[in-house]
């Protein structure tokens, strides 16, 4: 069984440093993606991770032994995404935006990612929210993963990742 916990709560209740954990996980995922020649995401900065932790939008997934195995950021849907991605059929106040969905590569292929998505869907149901996410348009494996988990493709858009312009596929999940 997995637990989805706020990174700030983990910092207060355990010896885990959430900033260090999320940064190291991101590096581990980047290295794994490079090894399989998969499309890349940009590196996470300490400042960005700490901003998410301080605003209670950083989450860490713990396995049944309390060991962290993944993380994600879940925040209110930014207005620029709402407008640029033509999501005006959604209520922006009831829409969340998930980024940096990371699973430790040693757990890939064991259906743990599916369980992580279930935890996020449970959060959405409890809060009466819709989940929006994007992924690189060329990352077909991740796109299939989201589609298999009930996310509906909404379109291909150009977005900014730091200073880079990237082409992303947008997905929405509604309870």
UniProtKB/TrEMBL annotation:
It comes from the Eukaryota. Residues 1-175 form the N-acetyltransferase domain. InterPro entries: Acyl_CoA_acyltransferase (IPR016181), GNAT_dom (IPR000182). Pfam families: Acetyltransf_1. GO terms for molecular function: acyltransferase activity, transferring groups other than amino-acyl groups. This is N-acetyltransferase domain-containing protein. It comes from Physocladia obscura. The lineage of its organism: Eukaryota, Fungi, Fungi incertae sedis, Chytridiomycota, Chytridiomycota incertae sedis.
